[in-house]
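Hey team,

Filing this mostly as a record. A colleague (T.K.) asked me to run one chain through the structure pipeline before their review meeting, and I want the input and output archived in the tracker in case anyone asks later how it was produced. No errors, nothing strange. Just documentation.

Input sequence:
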Amino acid sequence: MKDYSSFSENIEVDIDDEMLASLFEKLSSNPLEEIKAADNIKIQGIVEDISKYDKRELLQRLAALRLSFENRDKAVLLDAITTATLNWLSENNWNFEGFSMSYGKFKKVIQQINQLDSKSAIDPLDNPYIDDIQFYGNHKVMPGINLTSSYNLNMVIRSIFLSSRMELSEEEKSYISILLDDNLTISTNICEKCQTPKELSSITREIFIPNKIQLDKYMEEICLDKALIGVSEISIKKEDADLVKQKPFSQNQHLFLTHPYLDTGKGVLILDVTSIANALYTKVMNLIPEEYVFEEIWNDVRKLFKALKHEKIADASFDLDLLNEKSYKERIFNVTNDKLLIAFGVFSGVNENVDHSEKITSRLESIVKKLNEHDIKNDQLFIVMVVHTLGGSLSASIKSNNLYITCKRIDDIA
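Output structure:
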């Protein structure tokens, strides 16, 4: 057998600056971003190729596809073609007119979209197809891929109308009530006409196309004759679309995620029914102090722990002074007779960028030290971080080698 060890000490590789730069570029490249960049060009090309057709009808059909149970997880593709069409309209003086597109031609367009490589980003969805909202009666929303939109909206409603903490004028409450009632009534009417199929098809990463009769029915549901007051408040303003050109495959929020309606000049179109809940809580959060919503969420967390038979431990039991701040909460619960659970709640608002990592690590060390002084050992402790954002960016991590730590979303606890 040859001995290659001596070669490793003397080999010299001559790499020029250009080769080195190319090597690092390849190592640092993001394949998914490259796919998105290529698909951005392709999908704009698809829209340009069908520019002679009626864009009002196209958007209506695209919006109708979102109602199908099979498409509840296809937002990556449907968002992209919708944004690409809005971009074209913005660049062409919002000219919706054109030839009517046949059902067969529309299927071919969707088949083109289904060939885009960005569909690899579509993941199986465990979100409910239809979710409940409580607001002076039972309402329904389609959350789509928005994991917390319906929960956030319920928490916002509870913090305003079922809690005594928040003080709003009657005028402010009336405005919010109209906003919620108009949009939730529309959403509920649509949801009640949608059904989960009796036999669930296998998971695919392609847009499902209903038969023409069903698609036409869905098209009727997502078109309004006129805009209600509450609808107008979260409708797309064309001047905003003109100012902000979004890439079809983008990490940034698509305009219709917070403004799901579009006035086409011949009625109001619900571009994305799955974004109504998201749009509502985002709009209301800009009108109220967010700390009251954080407090409502934290109270819900405590109720969930109690439902799991974890009772709150008084701070004085261990000479602790636990924090209860605007977006940062601490609480201790029992687990069994000799074990404790330390819970941290960290929250961020709609546009906040928050990192609680250093604070949690420091506070955990302090709390554990105090518990150790009361003969509570580390192996008797469980640490849970409940991390929740209303739309911003939130980071929270703990550096510890000898504690069992888990991070939970609200729906993981429930």
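Quick notes for T.K.: The CA atoms of residues 255 and 273 lie 13 Å apart. Residues 1-15 have pLDDT under 50 and may be disordered.
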